[in-house]
Amino acid sequence: MNHKILWLRRRFGWMGNHSGYDQLCDYMSKILPSETYQSVWQNPGQPHNQLLRSIVKSMGKKAKASPMYALDSTAAEVKVLLKSLQWHPDLIHITYVENQLGILPNWREKLSCKIIGTSHQPAGWWRLVHKHPKSIANLDALIVVGSREVAYFEQYLPERVFFVPHGVDTEFFCPLEDSVNKKDSIRCIFSGKHLRDLETLAIVIDKVISKNSDIHFDIIMPQDRRSASDALLIRMARHEQVHWYGGVSDTHLRKLYQRATMLVLPILDCTANNALVEAISCGLPVISNDVGGLQDYTREDFAELLPVGDIDGFVRAILTLAENHEEQLRRSNAARDFAENYLNWTHIAKKTLEIYNKVIT
Length: 361
Prior knowledge:
Layout: E1 5-9, H1 23-31, E2 37-41, H2 50-60, H3 71-87, E3 91-94, H4 97-100, H5 108-111, E4 114-119, H6 123-129, E5 141-144, H7 149-154, E6 161-163, H8 179-182, E7 186-191, H9 198-211, E8 215-220, H10 231-237, E9 242-245, H11 250-259, E10 262-265, H12 274-281, E11 286-289, E12 303-306, H13 311-322, H14 325-343, H15 345-360
Parallel strand pairs: 1-2, 1-3, 3-4, 4-5, 5-6, 7-8, 7-10, 8-9, 10-11, 11-12
């Protein structure tokens, strides 16, 4: 592929160097000739110069953007605009449309290139909080990371919405050798807060520990997302079997996955989920809900997907798996195989480049 590609990129502070969708650009850069791609970064908090800030703010007023769009989003789009007028790319890829799509479509005629984006939030989020969902129609194509979202976006981009899964760094997120046999306790890992069903989690923890006090729960949640006034978190924290982690390094995060027995993830909705794909890549069986994109990222041989709010189902699934060492091993191997075959970033990068070619040509 010799087309010129310009990426609008962003890394989020709570994600490590081996996590997040931006990994896609790193892996595509390993495939593409170095002269065929360039990057523009969205830097939260920019711009600092007062004059530039006022100019950017004025331009941003014309953006029909989502609630996640901010002043630094407009600043990043301005940088993309200037880079495009200088370098003349064939395609611009906005990697987070919820955070970054605002003013670029207004310059389509002067840019004379294709503009595509990737959406990360589920259709329910778009219906609930986005005031201008039709703005997506200004793109030439849209990549979604959950197949159920295709139908929603097709109303704005007929036959131009493509499902490509979110990937995972399978080389970094990997099981320990013979990890299941080396685990000395049953540990259920849970990560995140956005769209998580914390009410179900709190009750499940109560019931599981009441039946088997040797089962532990590792909760990964940023410190600034926890509050002593949050009744559900207080309910969980009463138990000495519940352990809290926040701001962990990449290697510490991997270690938490590697020593866990299973991922327990009550969730209300999602497209892709970093905790899910990283846990799968580390060989963890999954107990979660049949919502959003979960079916895209799981198979029955390693995951049990339950209806939302099925507390008894979660309790039963956790206790049953905790008591069956052979089933833990079987599911662990199946999860790791799935990640290596379907979710590795090299595979995802190639599928994305196929869409680039399709859109450009």
